[in-house]
């Protein structure tokens, strides 16, 4: 490994970013790469499978390695990876990178064919071991691959203390290799823009989340319906999200409970549009039962929007004293938390101030400083 004062070369597996602009994993990897480009001693190389117009590929001082994607009956990327890297591994012309960084759990078997002095993997959390029904053959293969090859990995990054605990206790990765690397956000710097056709006045409730069973958005819809029975003055609810793998229970609940005039559903918004919503919302309700971090919670905090979140996962770690933490498995408990906060404007204003202060803990400058420290240690 190069000394800290010398330039080091970091190779990123960026196929996790390509074509996935609405993925939290992709967005975090993208921002990390942007921030690393500001470091004078970091040279970045992007390894992926296709030409892409993502802005990171235009950064000065970077280069790309494109793996030709060949078509196989299955696992085309993996077999293309093998065909490309096996000859390079045995070639004396292929100098090792200082660091290879994989930004998701989709780490191919024989990942060590890419020669490097250090291997870093961002796993975010052990949700594939916690949440029922999300595992596929491939996710099982990736985790099996990492467990048997963990001796070739230097650092495994979890994105919260809760995530690191899960990676050690549930996923059974060695504690000495698991390191906390908090996510961050620049939402406080984004120029807000009203979403096209959105006409609600400020003062609504917001939930920004994909629709999956563990994301628990349907429970929020049920809680909102319970509140509406007791108050016609309830603020409108805005859901920003869409079904994953056909999971549309939140939409069916809206129809079943006849909430069409009270709940607005938006999807595929830009960061500027999301910033507008956070800055004009009263409360950011994030009902997910399992999160490695909870980026939507932090984005809200950066815009002064306090959180109501699940007390048994990492989102309560992120929001801290700027959030209200409840058992999100209960629609009644969630409804009571929303109602109590709406009835206490003094506390709501205090939480808005706390949100800005709390959000200052999570900056890309701090995250990148920690990451470079791991790269160069």
Output the structural class.
alpha/beta
How widely separated are the two ends? 8 Å
Please give the order of strands in the largest beta sheet: 3-2-1-4-5-6-7
Shape: elongated
Strand content: 15-25%
Give the proportion of residues in helices: 25-40%
Q: How would you characterize this protein structure?
A:
Helix 1 links the parallel strand 1 and strand 2. The chain folds into two domains: 8-184 and 363-376, 3-Layer(aba) Sandwich (Rossmann fold); 187-359, Rossmann fold, CATH 3.40.50. The N and C termini lie close together (8 Å). 41% of the residues are buried. A seven-stranded parallel sheet has the order 3-2-1-4-5-6-7. With 377 residues, it is α/β, with parallel strands linked by helices. The model has no long low-confidence stretch (mean pLDDT 92). Helix 1 packs across helix 13 (364-376). It is built from 13 helices and 13 strands.
Quick recap of the structure?
This protein is α/β, with parallel strands linked by helices and 377 residues long.
Which characteristics define this entry?
377 residues; alpha/beta; Rossmann fold; 2 domains; 6-stranded parallel beta sheet
């Amino acid at each position: 490994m190069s000394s800290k004062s010398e330039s080091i070369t970091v190779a990123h597996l960026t196929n996790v970013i390509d074509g996935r602009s609405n993925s939290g994993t992709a967005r975090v990897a993208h921002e990390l790469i942007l921030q690393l480009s500001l470091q004078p001693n970091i040279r970045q190389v992007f390894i992926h499978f296709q030409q892409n117009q993502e802005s990171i590929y235009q950064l000065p001082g970077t280069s790309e390695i494109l793996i030709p994607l060949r078509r196989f009956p299955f696992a085309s990327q993996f077999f293309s990876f093998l065909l490309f890297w096996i000859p390079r591994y045995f070639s004396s012309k292929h100098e090792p990178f200082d660091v290879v960084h994989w930004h998701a759990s989709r780490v191919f078997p024989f990942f060590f064919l890419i020669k490097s002095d250090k291997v870093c993997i961002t796993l975010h959390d052990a949700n594939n071991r916690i949440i029922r029904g999300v595992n596929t053959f491939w996710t099982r293969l990736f985790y099996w691959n990492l467990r048997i090859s963990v001796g070739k990995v230097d650092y495994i990054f979890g994105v919260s203390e809760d995530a690191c605990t899960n990676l050690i206790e549930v996923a059974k990765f060695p504690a000495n290799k698991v390191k906390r690397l908090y996510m961050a956000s620049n939402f406080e710097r984004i120029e807000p823009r009203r979403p096209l056709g959105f006409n609600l006045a400020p003062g609504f409730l917001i939930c920004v989340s994909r629709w999956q069973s563990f994301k628990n958005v349907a429970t929020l819809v049920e809680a909102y319906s319970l509140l509406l029975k007791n108050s016609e003055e309830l603020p409108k609810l805005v859901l920003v999200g869409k079904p994953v793998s056909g999971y549309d229970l939140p939409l069916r609940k809206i129809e079943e409970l006849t909430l069409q005039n009270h709940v607005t559903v938006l999807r595929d918004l830009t960061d500027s549009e999301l910033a507008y919503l956070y800055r004009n919302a009263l409360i950011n309700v994030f009902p997910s039962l399992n999160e490695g971090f909870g980026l939507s919670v932090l984005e809200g905090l950066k815009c002064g929007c306090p959180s109501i979140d699940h007390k048994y996962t990492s989102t309560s770690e992120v929001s801290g004293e700027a959030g209200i933490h409840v058992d999100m498995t209960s629609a009644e408990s969630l409804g009571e938390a929303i109602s109590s906060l709406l009835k206490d404007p003094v506390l709501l204003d205090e939480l808005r101030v706390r949100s800005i202060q709390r959000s200052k803990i999570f900056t890309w400058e701090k995250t990148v400083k920690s990451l470079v420290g791991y790269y160069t240690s």
